[in-house]
Amino acid sequence: MRGNVDVDGDAIRWEAMVVNGKARMYFGPFPALLRMPLNLIYPAGRGAWSRISGFLAGEIALFALTGLISSALSTSSLSARARSWLGGACICGFVFGTPLLLLLGNLSIYNEAIIWAFGWSMAALFFGWRCRNAEGRALVVSLVAFSLCASAALLSRVTFGAPLLLIALLLALRLPHANRLRLVAALFLPLGAGLAFYLLLSYARFGSFAGISFDHYINPVHREFAHNYGIFSWQRIPYSVADYFGLRFPSLQWQAPFLKADRHFFAHPQLYSLPFSETYLPVPWAASWLLAGAILGAICLFRRNCADLFERGTAAAFALQCLGILSYYALSQRYSVDLYPFLIFCLLVFLRRGGVFLARTYRVMIGLVLVSITVNSLATVSWLVDSDQNVRPETRAIWNRFLGRSSPAATSEFK
Question: What pLDDT is attached to residue 214?
Answer without folding.
Answer: 76
